[in-house]
Amino acid sequence: xxxxxxxxxVPFEGLEDEKRxxxxxxxxxxxxxxxxxxxxxxxxxxxxxxxxxxxxxxxxHPEDRNKYEKDIQAVFSGxxxxxxxxxxxxxxxxxxxxxxxRGIITTGADGKSKVFxxxxxxxxxxxxxxxxxxxxxxxGFMKDAQMFPERHKEKVYLIFGINYFSDINKNYGFExxxxxxxxxxxxxxxxxxxxALLYRMDGIKFCLVMEGxxxxxxEVMYELISNFAYRGYxxxxxxxxxxxxxxxxxxxxxxxxxxxxxxxxxxxVWEVSKEKHLGELVYFNNELFGNTKKNLEILSEIRxxxxxxxxxxxxxxxxxxxxxxxxxxxxxxxxxWEHPKYGMVSPGVFIPWLESDPCFYQLGAWVLxxxxxxxxxxxxxxxxxxxxxxVSSQQISRSGFRDTVCEILKEVxxxxxxxxxxxxxxxxxxxxxxxxxxxxxxxxMGIKVALDDFGTGISSLNLLLELxxxxxxxxxxxxxxxISNVSQQTIVETIAFCAQKMHLSICAEGVETTEIxxxxxxxxxxxxxxxxxxKPVVIEEFTKYLKKSA
Length: 550
Hints:
This protein is of the alpha/beta class and about 550 residues long. It has three domains: about 1-125, PAS domain (Beta-Lactamase), CATH 3.30.450.20; about 125-300, 2-Layer Sandwich (Alpha-Beta Plaits), CATH 3.30.70; about 310-550, TIM Barrel. Helices cover about 40% and strands about 25% of the residues. The protein is built from 20 helices and 22 strands. The strands form four sheets. An eight-stranded mixed β-barrel has the order 14-15-17-18-19-20-21-22, surrounded by six helices. The chain has a six-stranded antiparallel β-sheet with strand order 3-2-1-6-5-4. The relative contact order is 0.06. This is Diguanylate cyclase (GGDEF) domain-containing protein. GO terms for molecular function: cyclic-guanylate-specific phosphodiesterase activity.
């Protein structure tokens, strides 16, 4: 049986802090032990308290007692697996503070002894509670994920976020926007999903964490959330409705996946839903290569390698050719990753995912430094030679990116005018004024700016109008069938005409045959890149190619 000595042996000191209080209750004896911080903050009768349910209920705000009793009874009767409820409770100063109380019942080996244990999070002082919604925030999500006791069980993560929430703030003000989030959270809390944990992630995203067997399928939950968001509600006489975007990540039982990899995967599927699928629910396994467990384990390992001296990462380079003379005028740096267990992993798989992880900034800096070091050896012999390095929106959005680029240029002693930054249209997600200022800074240094994959997205023309760039790179999708496809011919001809009128350089990617080269020459496209000339190769092979082409 569990007795006083057992309760005393619970290591509260390692579990509590000034924001989270811990309790454990011997249900057979109706005897509870509370952490010392809880005893002091709530002015409890002592560390050990009998009939605590009655004592504690008296401290809960009268309006919240029914909610508390309903939840606790559901747990004690076995209808719910976990106690998880927010309410107001009086502290030692007689002030009601909002807390989140969580708990779980465990049964002893004899099948009779029962312990109810858990924690109380104080919203007044907690760094893991979102002050607007009262939900655990992303830090609480990370903290909880490390402590999930059911690591051997399948987990389902449903992430969703409000589309164009900035318009609500812009039109009605931030305080009104906060009221919208509070009301949305109330609706989310009403969802019938036993044992599910709800978090407010970064920005306007939320996450439901469920065990595989819990509640409805994630698509059913997502439809419920979408429906009440679309129906909307009235706040201060104003009717508000909105759409959401979302995605699902499954983590199989006993999977060796880090919570950081899960978090990055959640950000990735949400962005794919928002940017490419108009808010349709996106499943992580369908978006990449099928096997979710293998997928997440590979991505976890990739992330781990970033923090271990970029283990397995290396660069390949593809030449950029002046079509008229056949001379090599530059090269594009392309990231690769290879692993003893997983082999070569396509950059098309891990780069879009990794861009959602903060570690990508560190990786991007390594790519820039390595590319400049390799290119420096070439420009000593070919002064006009230029290296193109891809820059993501995640990198350029960082306030320290300017300093990072300047420091690397200085460290490598590389001429700024021999560097070209390639941007994709995803940078349009950034504030356009901020983006314009950043690019002007780099251009004033002498760095060239190119728009990569030009024409593939609906925002390409807008970027061309808004930003001062030096070069357009025509995506290979407009090149591969250009000999027979009239639409591709028209698009390429139009892009070439616009570039010439705007005094922009232009480069075609994916040139694989002599026929395609001749067709592009006809339209006056001066730079070309593709397998007709050379596939991406490591720097040693590239140097040999340069000598052979000279």
